[in-house]
Amino acid sequence: MKKLLANLLFLLLILSSTLSKAAAYWMEIEGTGKLNRAFTIRVIYGRIDDFGIRHRDTGKELELAGEFKVKVLDASGLQTNINLVKKSDCWEGTYTPTKQGIYRILGINDTHPVVDRSATGGKNVRPIDYLCAAYLAGSNNAEASPAQLLDIVAFSNKGIITVKAYNNQAPAKAKTTLRVFNPENWEKELTLDDGEAVFKTTIPGLYIIRQDWEDTTPGEYKGVAYKSVRHRCNYSLIVKP
């Protein structure tokens, strides 16, 4: 009986670890691409199951998703803050484009509590999450520019996606690794060369492109000391059929 309980506990720990690694925040953008027609912005926290299917979570993590500060930048750099409203499985806001061009949707959550591992002898880490996406209204598909500390921009040409990653407005260092999750959540790693990498899409749907960066400057947040800050940027790319 003790052996059975031990095995069950071990399996539970493995499952918990797997789910935590597969969980993430992301955005979904939905609209017609037409001027003067509102598009919808959804901020989601979810996980990936053993079959590669994304599920939206509705627990306390959904509450934390509402702490993202979201804004839209138009092609001229004009910034509009977006008011998010809680739904059953996401936070939702809208924006109406009035000029042709690329609109950047950006989000940041720098209010996460420090991940405190002191009880087990681990390193305390402060997580900061960034979200980004782009929305084309009309034509004039000009290339977007970086606008937040950790940022990603991407553009498509005949199924080939060019990704540019930035750290503090400058191209990310050579050999920086990005992770790409396709709509079936198969993962591919990209290695940056001069801040840029390319990949080919396989199927239509939502691709999530992730950049991580660790700032090893120690500090304190909400009364808890930390050894480093984990910055994570998730870029949401919709590939249409």
From TrEMBL:
> Which species does the entry assign this protein to?
Mucilaginibacter pedocola
This chain belongs to the protein called DUF4198 domain-containing protein
Q: Which domain of life is it from?
A: Bacteria
Which keywords accompany this UniProt record? Signal
Tell me the first and last residues of the signal peptide.
Answer: 1-22
